[in-house]
Specification:
The chain is an alpha/beta fold. It has 10 helices and 15 strands. Helix content is 39%, strand content 22%. 42% of the residues are buried.
Length: 253
């Protein structure tokens, strides 16, 4: 297959499924990892894709998040692995904050295996998923509902979150910078996530490998705010060292 044919195929896969890994492309195109990396770098240089550790995804902006429908497809298998592994460490009877995000929605689906949970969330998709269980207590934060993704934001949302103290916070973010900064796109969503972090005894971040090094414009916090980070692939060494230095447990699904 010629180079332009390979690159057209890569663009098609990115459009169809969001994040694509180097390993997946090596297998589907029957070429070396070095060839795939060269193709991805060239496509990124032409502003056709966004390059990530271990693969590539749709072109991104630091001011606007990818559409919800794309994010649902983006790395769905990785998110399910993260969720399955994370839920193994959540005991029956726990109280949990869950914020906005497609990875936290995957966690909500996996949580259906647990018993007698109390969950406070600003994510309508999470709430709808968990109502399948009659033994769960589900509290939905009030506020403005974003039609594009079912997220609830605003001062009323923050006020409700601050009325609780939970065993766990399970959160997602849009990006993790090399200096440990956690980033997102909507400052109102960030304020809710900050309140969640402040009012949980243990803070767990679930983030697939594409979030490492990804840019967004609003500062949510630092990795030092976390107790554990669950991801699907070992991050670059700099991130691993940073997490270790901050005492953050790194769990690879």
């Amino acid at each position: 297959m010629r180079q332009h044919q390979r690159q057209d195929h890569i663009l098609e896969l990115v459009d169809q499924q969001g994040f694509v890994s180097i390993d997946q492309l090596v297998e589907s195109l029957d070429v070396t990892p070095q060839t795939i990396r060269r193709d991805l770098n060239q496509l990124a240089d032409r502003n056709l894709i966004s390059r990530h550790h271990g693969g590539a995804g749709p072109l991104e902006s630091s001011t606007e998040n990818t559409s919800y429908s794309t994010r649902v497809r983006y790395g769905s298998e990785a998110k399910e692995r993260i969720a399955t592994r994370l839920v193994k460490d959540i005991p029956d009877g726990a109280s949990i904050f869950i914020n906005i995000g497609t990875t936290t929605e995957a966690v909500a689906r996996a949580l259906l295996k647990r018993k007698n949970l109390s969950v406070i969330t600003n994510n309508l998709h999470v709430a709808a998923t968990l109502t399948e269980r009659e033994d769960y207590r589900i509290i939905v934060a009030g506020g403005e509902v974003r039609s594009r993704d079912g997220g609830i934001i605003g001062e009323a949302t923050v006020d409700l979150i601050r009325q609780f103290q939970t065993d766990y916070a399970i959160i997602g973010v849009s990006g993790i910078q090399e200096d440990g900064t956690l980033l997102d796109f909507d400052y109102r969503e960030v304020r809710v996530s900050q309140a969640i972090i402040e009012n949980a005894r243990k803070v767990i971040l679930c983030a697939d490998i594409s979030k490492f090094g990804r840019n967004a414009m609003v500062r949510l916090g630092e990795v030092s705010d976390l107790d554990a980070l669950y991801t699907d692939t070992t991050p670059p060494e700099g991130f691993v060292q940073l997490l270790e230095s901050q005492g953050v447990e790194l769990v690879i699904a």
